[in-house]
What we know:
This is ATP-binding domain-containing protein. Pfam families: NERD, UvrD_C_2. The chain is α/β, with parallel strands linked by helices. It is built from 24 helices and 29 strands. The strands form seven sheets. Strands 1, 2, 3, 4, 8, 9 and 10 form a seven-stranded mixed β-sheet that branches. Strands 13-12-14-17-11-18 form a six-stranded parallel β-sheet, covered by helices on one side. Strand 15 (392-393) and strand 16 form a beta hairpin. The two termini are 41 Å apart. 52% of the residues are buried.
Amino acid sequence: MAEFIVTEAFGGPGESGEARVFEAVKAAYAGExxxxxxxxxxxxxxxxxxxxxxxxxxxLGLVVIEVKSLPLDAIERVTGYRWDLARPYFDQLHLNPYxxxxxxxxxxxxxxxxxxxxxxxxxRAIVALPLVTREAWDGRFGHLLSDIPMLFxxxxxxxxxxxxxxxxxxxxxGQSLDPEAWTALRSxxxxxxxVPRREVRLPPPAREPSPRRADLVAxxxxxxxxxxxxxxxxxxxxxxGPQRIRGIAGxxxxxxxxxxxxxxxxxxxxxxxxxxxxxxxxYDQIRQQVDHWLRQATNGEQSxxxxxxxxxxxxxxxxxxQPGFYRTLATQVGVTPLTVDRTPPGSPAAKLLFACxxxxxxxxxxxxxxxxxxxxxxxEGQDLVHEEAALSFEEKQxxxxxxxxxxxxxxxDALLETGEPEARRLxxxxxxxxxxxSLTIPTARALFGEAGAQMFGGGALYRGGIRKSEVMNRCYxxxxxxxxxxxALGMGLLRPEGMLAGLTNKAGWKAxxxxxxxxxxSGSQVTLTRPLEHSPNPLPTFTDAPLxxxxxxxxxxxxLRQLVTSIQRDLGAEGLQPSRQILVVVVGxxxxxxxxxxxxFHALRAANISVYLAGNKDVNVxxxxxxxxxxxxxxxxxxxxxxxxxxxxGNEADVVYVVGVDRVAVREDNLxxxxxxxxxxxxxxxxxxxxxxxxxxxxLNQEIQSVLAAGNTLQFTYRAPRRRMDDDMxxxxxxxxxxxxxxxxx
Length: 746
């Protein structure tokens, strides 16, 4: 079926004509195979500027339509391909629209051929004049443009438009695309086909008959994801106001936000754009992603280096030696930024929010504006909220209100009317299941209180079709059985006393990619299945071995000995690399993770395995203190990383060992510990191994066994959870910003 993407809401000068042509194209392709873009984000010196309308058609190939919303009397003279104008059009008195479209079609065709290996791909270019009829044109200029493909006002009906496109002579000759080639073209134009590929270094071939983990990892890494329309919509569109992105673990939120930031910069190079995140260990990953998408969209002409004065990649807090979002805004207001040691005792998020609240009060008292950004994109949004009222600012979440206040209002235009008194581009992504500190779900109402309704208005869409809220249900990282186990254990679905947290209706489970049978009534049976299309990682189809395992040991030393043996096998017979392929995550509250991390470190070092403790400056040394630290780092080549859950967030590995599960078992009803289990397991893009000590008589021992025995289908008895995680934006009867109880669990 035809799919069309509006990358930015219509409303700018001259865009009413483009909107008319775009709607005509959509009508012409209704019910057929096609992919269309308004303003496809490809900007290079060769293309002049982004194409007005791009159509991918399996029969015609690529078609570029250059739209000129000019009345006939605005064109004074036509000489060959050149148009001389009677008055300026976007500050120009001379146009060459066909040559512009032809060059764009040529560059896009070369790009698609290079990305998808489609030598048979054809391209076409045509100029549309939605305000001029052919009769009027011929009456004034005769048949001067008989050799140039033109689309006039009366040809915008479905049949006549398709005929005009089919009669357009090719810029590049090609053939109709078979299904495989058509899929390749869609991927070449889309996000999924151009995501940076992970390089997997293979050791020498194994002598064993069965495939090693290294071979399975390499085979999985070669797998290309199918075209994902939702990813295209999120990554390539620029909303005219706020947007919320709720995505399950591994759905690609960080990648898409990085691409969104790159696309914003390319379309609006004058904007100041902030890309904000909670975990400092994500710095390198986000920088690499933004740089990749800038280069990808401009054929290598732009990069993060050329854009660094406009795209600001900022840790939420910042440090003395590294600008962060909070510290940048404190400097803007003219106050000395608070440091961690100058805030009350509490979690890292609580300390940050205390500082944000203080900054908002300072700005309010001094009357100084925080407005320095045109767009703010927030990753890991679930870690930037807190339920303590003392950390709020006028019943709003302090960090988000600070971010909102840092934004300049979107310029208003008569054609770009969102219905709200003002709009600011605050875009936040989150997965509430990954929250390690707060139980608040960052819906608009939870973040901004009653002001959210006024700020964001009613309705699910902005004008032009861009959604105010997106829910991403495909998990590209974690295999389906592993993700199902992570959700089951994180929510406590098989607890004898009933689930601790989770979704309480079919719509909610379907929204995050599950098939559901049963009724959500107390005592009723509910069955969950995760279909392959929502977990495209193909590893489960390559091996019959279980991807999730669990071992309970009599004591910690026994657990550590088995961990050492398993990692030695991974590094030896299984052919894996220590860095980025193997990760050890330790769980627990307060001092527990540090103690277990130290024990794991000594056990691995005693076996001569190189170890890196995330955040250290050096390899193979115990936990270091400032200044011998590197908070931005999570990996070191040649070493196995051992990390608490908080630092592991946002990172991933082929094999994840979750150590110290007994720390969860002794407080199995603790929601933060359950969330730790979910985050730790969902770091895996292959295998997850859980282990603990002394759990044989604890209920979690049997619960884990039951979850793993369930395989790909999980059946549980529904009871109302302590914490509801429903997304009521999916229910049409409620406005998009609503969430019962202000987003609290309940």
